[in-house]
Fold this sequence. Notes:
Layout: H1 2-38, H2 42-59, H3 64-87, H4 91-108, H5 112-135, H6 139-152, H7 157-169, H8 173-189, H9 193-216, H10 226-238, H11 243-255, H12 259-272, H13 276-292, H14 296-304, H15 311-322
Amino acid sequence: MKFRVLAILGGVLLTTMLSAQTLTDVINEFNTGVEKLNSQEYDISIEHFNQVITLAEQIGDEGNDMKSQAENMIPSAYYRQATVFMKRKQYDNAIPFLEKTVETATLYNNNEEISKKANKYLPQLYVREGNHEWKNKSYDAALAYFDKALGLKETLYQAHQGKGMVYLDMDEADMMLESFAKAKAGAEAKGDTKTIDKVNRAIDSYYNKFITEEMENVDPEDNDYSYVIEACENALGANPNNPRALYHMALVSNKTSRYDSAISYAQKAVQNEKDPLWASAANYELGLAYDKSAKYDKACEAYRLVTEDPFLAKAEKKMVDICD
């Protein structure tokens, strides 16, 4: 009977010693993790903190405090690794660590402040990587990044702009216009006129190629401009201020003797055109429309604004007959 008591006491003592030894191991493992964290060996530090969690769970309630401390350190380690890559402008490398920051902070229900910081950076980095993939013509990857950005911040209009550029390259007109409309709405809300201009230029470039193709296909013997007009109307439906579409509508209107329409289209073209050559083309059509309407003073005003050849030579020839 005495032997049995001694055996029981010995078992309790052994269990206590094993528990103390294991807790010591947990503490040592945690301290090693902290050392590695401070020496910027982030991957290794995270391995040690994960080991702390495993060991702490084995010893039960006695390890709960160390387990909690390790769980608190893991999101911080991921975030610190992310910031190192961001400082080096290695944003593609930073993204996985920012994602793990959010993931582990959510898993362990801690580090809310660091998680918010990571979520603040991620949308912009997703857009950056999306644009990178778009330029490399990796369209599926680009769209995935833009959608990730919008999943975190639905008001991030730059992501809609990026999607629009992808759909433009893919010749998906409806999807392109939908994305660009959202981009312009978001940019307008922020007073971002530069983005609006960029989007409009992208839309114009897409539609202008069709206008050029249809203009080149016009039979000089037939003078059927219906397809040119259709292409211009599609362009103006996407952007009412498309200067090239307005110019071509003025050109066609003059060729079909609809001078009032030519004046209206040419005036809008002049207002929106930035390129000196095309501005000269629009002013020439405006002058011609006024000329044909016997509004010679206004015709001369328009002709004098023509500065680039071949339109300058044509305008000067016209001015000889009607201008003082």
